[in-house]
Write a structure and sequence with these properties.
single chain; mainly alpha; MetI-like fold; 2 domains; 14 helices
Length: 289
């Protein structure tokens, strides 16, 4: 009896030590993750001289109003235009990515056809290719068809999202029962109605997770818009912030950090409100039933 109590006591102590270690590690990782954002927000309130003297500081400065005034005089920086363009492109990209990736994953999961495995293997192969490999060919096609400075060229390619297709297929294998689909077919529902009315609601956690990733990826995209967009009215926020660093006479680092803060603020808000979907969606998508 006494030995059992000693063993139980030692097990309890080991469990407490393990949980304490986990909490400490998670706290350290959280601090390391938030530290760059805190430095960015603090530097947005500091002057260029202060930033050059001490690049990293956790003490806010008193130059926020000055940085805002300087930023408002920059002709290349138009935050309302940049926000509007980034929002249109990111929202459209997110909708196309999530819907068509879900539709493709459902087709691979629910139907049996001869080239099913080969098609899925092709998707996996494309997923391994970096996007820069096809950039030259894509730009030449856009140029020859006079489609540069066209937002559609940043939106339509989102229909093909191999990584999202892979994630959605893994999620469907653990979350969707074909008995539900067969019941809908017996009741006379068409394939698209079955998918839109039955399958999509089941995939909501995975769709929310991938929507966040797609939106953030599109919002932060600098390379593609910088190549395709030549007119200032079509610039996105990352391009406008990058142009702030192009002054050869004097670089206002406080204004650059303020522009970065304005760019990152919508993403921070999205993460704060929808972070629970990232955890639940990734967990469900990685488990097969």
């Amino acid at each position: 009896m006494a030995s059992n109590q000693v063993a139980l006591h030692s097990k309890t102590k080991s469990d407490i030590a393990f949980k304490t270690t986990i909490y400490i590690v998670c706290t350290i990782l959280a601090i390391l993750s938030l530290f760059p954002f805190v430095v960015m927000l603090v530097n947005a309130t500091r002057s260029t001289a202060q930033i050059q003297a001490h690049a990293v500081s956790l003490i806010p400065g008193s130059s926020l109003s000055k940085n805002i005034k300087i930023l408002s005089t920059k002709k290349t920086f138009q935050p309302l235009v940049g926000m509007k363009n980034s929002l249109i492109i990111s929202a459209s990209t997110t909708i196309l990515t999530v819907y068509f990736a879900s539709l493709t994953a459902y087709a691979i999961f629910a139907y049996d056809w001869k080239l099913k495995k080969a098609f899925f293997g092709l998707i996996m192969g494309i997923m391994m290719l970096p996007g820069t490999v096809t950039m030259i060919g894509f730009y030449r096609a856009c140029y020859q068809f006079h489609l540069t400075d066209n937002k559609l060229m940043l939106i339509l390619p989102a229909i093909a999202a191999p990584m999202t297709v892979f994630f959605m297929k893994q999620y469907l294998e653990g979350a969707l029962s074909m008995d539900i689909v067969e019941s809908a077919r017996i009741d006379g529902a068409g394939e698209f109605r079955t998918f839109n009315s039955i399958v999509l609601p089941i995939m909501k956690p995975a769709m929310a997770t991938q929507a966040i990733f797609a939106f953030v990826g599109s919002w932060n995209n600098y390379f593609m818009p910088r190549i395709l967009m030549n007119k200032q009215k079509n610039y996105t926020m990352p391009i406008m912030v990058a142009l702030l660093n192009g002054d050869i006479y004097k670089t206002e680092f406080g204004c650059i950090y303020l522009g970065l803060s304005m760019t990152a603020l919508p993403l921070i808000i999205i993460y704060l409100f929808l972070s629970k979907y990232i955890v639940s969606g990734v967990a469900l998508g990685s488990v097969k039933g």
